[in-house]
Amino acid sequence: MIIFKSINKLNKKVNFKANVGFVPTMGTLHKGHISLIKESKKKCNKTLVSIFINPSQFNNKKDLINYPKNLYRDIKVLKKIKIDYLLIPKISEIYKNKKNMKIKLDKKDKILCAKYRPGHFEGVLAVINQFLLKIKPKFIFLGEKDFQQIFLIKKFIRNRFKTKIKQCKTVRFNNLLPYSSRNFLLSKNDINNASFVSKSIYKFYSSIKKNFKNKLNINIVRNNINSKKIKIDYFEIRNKINLSKSYNRKNFKIFIAYYLKNIRLIDNF
Questions:
Q1: According to CATH, where is 3.40.50.620 located in the chain?
Q2: Which CATH class is domain 2-168?
Q3: What distance in Å separates the CA atoms of residue 125 and residue 192, rounded to the nearest whole number?
Q4: What is 181-268's CATH topology?
């Protein structure tokens, strides 16, 4: 594994005209990240992982400060699974060209997390834009836990870049809780409550699959979650193709964002 702390140095050493897969991360790696890396290794000749905690996608300074970090452990993990390249760029390099960092969302896209975390996805898209402008990988691997993020990145890069998105399934614990770097901040009781949320959503999803009329039970499910003193940002059923509220039995998806104390978690089925 070769570690680069500069995109310019990376570009001098790596031939991105070859089949290179890119896995962007914010570090504190877990099995979800590893599954993306393994998919890249299957699909591509070379795999590049980035670790960059992007300040502009945090609309809460405390959230940025408290975001879990363990670079030493991450490097050990990446060496063990034998990736080819690791990029750890500096903020000054990513934010050097401020014009490329000014991204605006369409009004119709200001839903779900974009509604409750203003500026978050603009920050995500700005950094993805910088990476793809400078690196130009053949594929980028993203996990479905961040489903809305994938939707917006797809829309953003469609007519801008040749890079293709590889969408990978959410990896979960046996208790159905999805792997997330934020899980490192949870207490045992919090983990139990987060598992309760995921199980509730999955049960609700399965019931709608069996009988579409069960979608009307959304308020019952919401009340069950609220009974655990869990603060819900949103809990919605949407069309998984275009994220509209017009959906049917074949294309619906359930989205939730909620807080356990001051830690915000998301999930979808």
A1: 2-168
A2: alpha beta
A3: 33
A4: Pantoate--beta-alanine Ligase; Chain: A,domain 2 (3.30.1300)
Which residue in this structure is represented by tokens 């996805």? 121
* Every domain range in the chain assigned CATH 3.30.1300.10: 181-268
DSSP characters over 187-249: -HHHHHHHHHHHHHHHHHHHHHHH-GGGGGGHHHHHHHHHTTTPEEEEEEEEETTT--S---T
Does the annotation count 120 as an active-site position?
no
pLDDT tens-digit profile, the chain (269 residues): 999 999 999 998 888 878 999 999 999 999 999 999 999 999 999 999 999 999 999 988 888 898 999 999 999 999 999 999 999 999 999 988 776 678 899 999 999 999 999 999 999 999 999 999 999 999 999 999 999 999 999 999 998 999 999 999 999 999 999 999 999 999 999 999 999 999 999 999 999 999 999 999 999 999 999 999 999 999 999 999 999 999 999 999 999 999 998 999 999 99
Of the residues 14, 27, 32, 33, only one is catalytic, namely: 33
Question: Are the C-beta atoms of 16 and 136 separated by less than 8 Å?
Answer: yes
Tokens of 80: 């063990």
